[in-house]
Structure formats: C-alpha cells, structure tokens
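Hey everyone, long-time lurker, first post.

I ran two proteins through the pipeline my lab uses and got sequence/structure pairs for each. Pasting them in order. The first:
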Amino acid sequence: MKYIRSFFVIVAISLIHSAVINSSVRTDARVNMPRGLTADKSQLTPPKRREERPRNLKHRRKGLQGYKKRYTFSDLHFDELKVAKNKQVESKNYFVACKYLNRMVTLSDDINEKAELMIELADLFFLQQSFDDAAKWYTEFVQLYPGNKQVEYASYRAVICSSKNILGADRDQSPTEKTLELSQTFLKREDLFVTYKKEVKNIERECYQRLAASDIRVAEFYITKQHDYDSAKKRISTIRDEWLEKAPEIGVEVARLEVTLAERCPDFKAPEESIKLAQVVIPAQKKVDMAARF
C-alpha cells in the first residue's frame, strides 16, 4: 500500500508540472501574436482612440488652428454690424443688409441715430418692393417720432406703400379704405406737410374713384344679374351721396345706371339730367367702338 500511494503522488506531481509548462508556453505565444488577434489584454497595446471633440459644437467650427468660434448677429457689436451692413449695401444685397439694420435698431441707445436707422431700414424694404414691411417701419417711425423732421416723408411713404396693395374695382376694397384713411390723416396736417401734399391728394382722389367704381359694379350686378331693383336703388343713392361730389368723373356711369334701372323697373324714374347725359355719352362710345374695328 505504501508503494501504491507513492506511485499516485508521483503521477499527480508530473501532471501538474506538465500543465504549468503548457500554460506558460501558450501565454508566451499570445503575447507575441500579431496585433488584432486574441491575446492577454494586460500584455497587448490598447488601440488608439479618436481625439475627443469639444462638447459644445453648436457655434464652433474646425479651422487650421483648431476650433474657432462662429459669430452670429447676437455676438457682433454695433460698429461691427455697421461695417457689415455697409458692405452688403455696396454689394446691393439689401435682404441681408436689412437683417443687420434690424439688429442695429435694437442695440442703438441714441434717439436720433435710431430714428435714422429706422428710416434707412424702411427705405431698403421699399427698394426691394417689400411694401408691407416698409409700411410697418414708416408707421412705427411716425408714432415714435411725431416731431422729427422726416415725419412728413415717412407719412408720405406709408401712404405710397398702402396704395401698392389696392386691388381692382371687382375685388376686396379693404386696402383702398386703409389707403384713404392714411391719406386723410396726412392731409389733416397739410399746413405743415407741403412737400408731398399734391401727390397724396392725387392718391386720395384715386381712392374715391376706386370705391365709387366698386359700388357701381355692385349696383350693375343687382340690376342685370339678380334683378334686385330695391338694392340697386339704395346702392345708387349711396353713390350719389358719398362719392359723386368727391369723384365727379363718375357722373357718367351713375347716369347710365339710372337709365338702365328706369328701363327695367317701372317704379324708378331716372332724373332728366341723367337721361340727357346718357344720351350724349352712349352714342359717342358706340362711335369709338366702330372706329376701333378699322
């Protein structure tokens, strides 16, 4: 029994020794393996990592010397905005120039300087035919600086911008009514506003003519399409009361309407003056039409 135990002990020691030798050989082989194959992590060189970028990349861009800050309108000072605006104006890039000017108006603390900037901004919008934006700035200028020397110019330009939105006589007349209101507000100060008084009076007269023409078309529609003669009578009466004195040139159209209504409605009698005017005008119109054919 003694010899048998010794034999098993010797065998066990031999097995343990051989296992230790094999393990060391495999470890050496892994250490010497090419990069990328499985090996002992403690013996291998870790792969290189990409350089970490700055966390806030929203306003940064990579240049030759690293990451540089990207400037926006909120970062520029007033003088920097002025230089940038002048460059855009020289390049006739008025759209971008308006953005710089808008920011300059916000930053300016000088009342006189701010007034000049608002006029310049409104003029640039007017130059681009952005009449709604221009009218907004002209109107705001008039409200903020009623005693400024350019208030007449701004009021006149506001009237012009509004007149650009006037539609035909068969369309909505809200822009015409707004333009007429602005014109009347301007002409209330005609003793002081003398430079553009004539132009504004012409616009006012055109508004009267357009509103009268719209009512004439409505009355004509009542007569010829709907045969609503009562509504036509009321509309013609409104035209005579409100527009005929302010726009005398519509008298011919009014006379024609009254004669047409008298022919279709026995209850209505056209004035003698309208009958004579219609008789004189209608043949002249037919003669022109006949001549136009040749």
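...and the second, right after it:
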Amino acid sequence: MAVKSIRVLLRGSEERLGVREFFHLPVRRGIGLSCALCLPASGNTAQGRVPRGSFLILSGRDADDLRLRREREKFLNRVREEECSCLAFAENREPPEEVRRFCEQNHIALFSSSYSGPYLLSRFTGLIREKILEIVVIHGVLVNLYGLGLLITGYAGVGKTTCGLELARRGHIWVADDLLEVEKRGGKLHGRGYGTARDVIALRGVGVVESRTCPGILRIQPESPLDLWCELRMKAEEPGEGRPRHIMEVALPFSTFPSPVVCRDAPALVENWVQTVAAGKEIA
C-alpha cells in the first residue's frame, strides 16, 4: 500500500535523504496526489505557481535570501498559498526561526540535509515515486517467457542485453532494455521501458536501434508482469537459486547465472529455470 502520511514517508529515510535534522514532522498531515512533485525553489519555479501540496527544496542563494525579512515574508506567503507539504533545506542550511514556527503552525514537514540541492532533489524524487506512486526505476532487461516476466540484472558489460536478445530469438517476448520502470498495482509488479528509451535497444559496437527493427526479435509487448529476477555474473559458476529478492515489498523468486560472456549456454540455463518455475505454477 502506498504511503499516506508525510511522517511515515520521511521516517526511516534519513540516510537516503541525508537528513541532518528534522525540525518538524506533522503527525496528521496526509499525502494527496499533488504531493507527487518535488521541486527546487530556484529558477523559473520561484517565479510561477507550483501544484498544491508540492515538496520544496532550498539551497544556496534561495536559502540565504530567507535571512532578509522581505524575502522571507514573500516566500512564506507563497508556501501558504500553494499549501506546500514539506520544506527541505539542502547543503546544511539552517531554516530561520520564523520559518520553523510557520511550519509547525501550518503542519508542514521541515528538515535540513547535508546533500546538495540537485542531489537531494533526485533522491527525494525517487523516494516519492517509490513510496507514493509505487514506481521504481531499475537498470536491467525485461523479457517474458512462458507468461512470466523476467528481470535480468548485473553489472555493465555482463551481457544482460545479449542474454535478453537470445531469449527473444528463441521466440520469447521482448519488453524493454536498459532502464525499466516498475510499477506496483494491486500488490503485483508490472514493468515497462522508461521514458524515451522504452522503444530502443543499446547494442555494443552498433549503437541505439529501435526494438522493432532489431534482428531476431519476433515478438514485442510494451509492458509485462514482473514475476522473476535473475542476476548475471562474470564467473563460470553453476546457476544458484537464492532467497527471494524484493521490489517494493513484493517477493520475487531469484537465481544467479553465469554471464553469456563466459558461458555460451547462459540463455538456455535461464530459459530452463523459468520453464521449471512456470511448470510449478501450473501444477499449483
């Protein structure tokens, strides 16, 4: 279930956000759909309105300007009008006392972070996507075999795309390469390509090509359930099933396999494992 409280969202995420100190964590503040945005207070954003309930990050000059009474009043009026849910001060900046009182009186979360503004923005955005929208972005390949979506991961150069393409050549369904967007819906995971990269494949020595024009890919679908997870390793070792891996608290059967770089039969080993799991699900 997606997080419904600002307090629950932030508690336990201190290391992820580089939290230096929580100044205020409202107990009753809920999270609405508009809270899915995390915006810096600088640049063009400062000049226009932002969606209600947004999270604002202040760093550098933005934070320093709040030492001036006029700028502070202008900023707090903006926060009030736009009903911001959270203020974060990056780069170890300290919120002025007036801002602390304002946040406490208006039930707005307030904390400082040791991270830079851009880095905190990326970390905060990822947290929001995962905990509120229930979406994460993962580096890997997604194919569908025997009706089961298989996530293939491993270090760069280990042969994830090579393995996925070989499985596609064997008649299985190609879904996406490189960056995957995984969404949790109804307690189950679904994967697809991320953004503008969803319809392309990056081939070593060739470059970026459209999936539908790639030789050997016979079937493509834009999205697939995500049911299994395997990891390729640059060692000629025996495949080994491990404990289930979790994505957004959903358990996935997990196994390791040698890389196609060191084991020509790696795709066949992966295929056999998925076939065995699929057969077990049919019996069950």
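Reply from user beta_strand_b:
Welcome! Quick read of the second one: The CA atoms of residues 7 and 27 lie 6 Å apart. The helical segments are 6-10, 14-17, 61-65, 69-82, 97-105, 117-131, 160-169, 266-283.
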